[in-house]
Amino acid sequence: MPGDYDIEYASPWAGANYIPISSEGTIAAEWDRNTWPELEKIARYHPEAGVHFQGFKFALPGLPQLLTYSETARYVRSQDMNADKDTRTASFLQAESWYKHVVPNYRQLQADECPPGYTSGNAFTSVCINTSIYLPWLVSQCLKAGVVFKRGMFNHISEAAPAHHTGRLANVVMNCTGLSARKLGGVMDENMIPARGQTVLVRNEPNIMCDVSGTSEGDEEVCYVMQRAAGGGTLLGGSYQKGNWDSQIDPNLAIRIMKRAIEVCPSLTGGKGIEHLSIIRQGVGLRPVRIGGTRLENERVDGMWVVHNYGHGGYGYQSSYGCSQAAVGLVAEALAAKAKL
Fold it and tell me: Residue 224: helix, strand or coil by DSSP?
C-alpha cells in the first residue's frame, strides 16, 4: 500500500500521467475516456493531491525564443509508421487520436515542431502525477470516507472474506492483486506477466511532458519525460521488458535512458550532456501486464462473489477512475445476485 516500495508494487515507480494508449472503440478506451474528467477535476480543485496540468515548451527552428503552450507532446518517428506495433504503441500511429475530443487543446504537430528524427505527432493539455503525494492522498480520501485498512497474507482468494474488520464475512471481495493474481489460489492467472520498467528520477525541470513512438533499441526500450507536480522531480524512462523479473538497476540501460531523454528534450540540460543531469534516484518496477488485457469481471469462487480488477499494465493511472466506476457496477450486480440466493 502507499508508503511501501516493492518491485511488484508498480504504483510508486510510475510517472505518472494521462496519455492514452488504448485503441478507439475498445472497452479500454472507454475506461480512459471516463478517467479524464476525474483527473482534470483533481488537478483543478485539489492541489494537495499532487496532480498538475502539464505545461509544454518547445523551441521552433529559426526562432530564438521559446513558445509556451499548455500541452503534452507525443512524437512519431517515420520508421514507426509502417511498423507492426502492439496495442501499447499503435495509438501513436493513428492520423488523429480518438481522445482529441476528450482532452483540451488537442492539435496535430507539424514536422518542424518535432525534435530531430521525428516527423509528426500531437499535442494537448494533460496532467502529470507526483505519485509520492498522490498515493497517500488517496489513502486520506478513503479514511475520510470510513474505509478501514488492514494488512494480511492470503494463500487463497476465499481467505479474504473472513478478514473483514467487522468480524463478519464480506459480501463481495474485490481482487486488485496485480501480479500476485498469477499465484493467488482461486485465481492463478497464468496470463499475468511482468513488464519491467527502469527509470531515472532527476532534479532537472524541462517544463515538458513527452512520449515517443519508438526507439532504435527495439520494443523493449521506450522514451518518455514526465515532470512531476510539487517539486517531485522529472522521471525519465524507460523500458518495457516483458517477462523480465530482474530487480537490479542496469547501468547501461540507465545511460541509454538519459541520452534519449536529452535528445528528445534538450531543455533538461540546456543542450548539454547527461553529466548535467542531477540524479535523485533510479528505480525498477514491474508493470502488471495481462495477456489479453485487463480482467474486469465478477465471478463466483467457493460460493462467494469476487470482482476482479487487475492486469492494467502500464496504464493503471490513466484508466483508474473508469475501471473503478465499472468495478462499482459489478459489485452492485454481485450484491443483487446475492440478494436473490
Answer: strand
Average pLDDT over residues 99-128: 90
Q: Is the per-residue pLDDT at 117 higher than 90?
A: no
- Run of H or E residues at 51: strand 51-53
pLDDT band at 1 (very low <50, low <70, confident <90, very high): confident
Angle, in degrees to the nearest 10, between helices 320-340 and 27-45: 110
Owner of C-alpha cell 531515472: 200
Residue 122 three-state SS: strand
Provide DSSP, 162-200. GG-TTSSPPSEEEE--GGGGGTSBTT--TTEEEEEEEEE
Q: What is the pTM of this model?
A: 0.91
All three cell numbers of 261, joined, read 531523454
For residue 120, what pLDDT band results from cuts at 50, 70 and 90? confident
Q: Which pLDDT score is estimated for 62?
A: 43
Dihedral sign for Cα atoms in the order 316, 318, 322, 324: positive
Residue by residue, DSSP assigns 89-119 as HHGGGSSS-GGGGTSTT-EEEPGGGSPTT--
Buried (b) or exposed (e) across 195-212, using 16+ Cβ within 10 A? Answer: bbbbbbbbebebbbbbbb
For the chain, the farthest-separated pair of C-alpha atoms sits apart, in whole angstroms, at 72
Separate counts of helices (H) and strands (E) for the chain? 5, 16
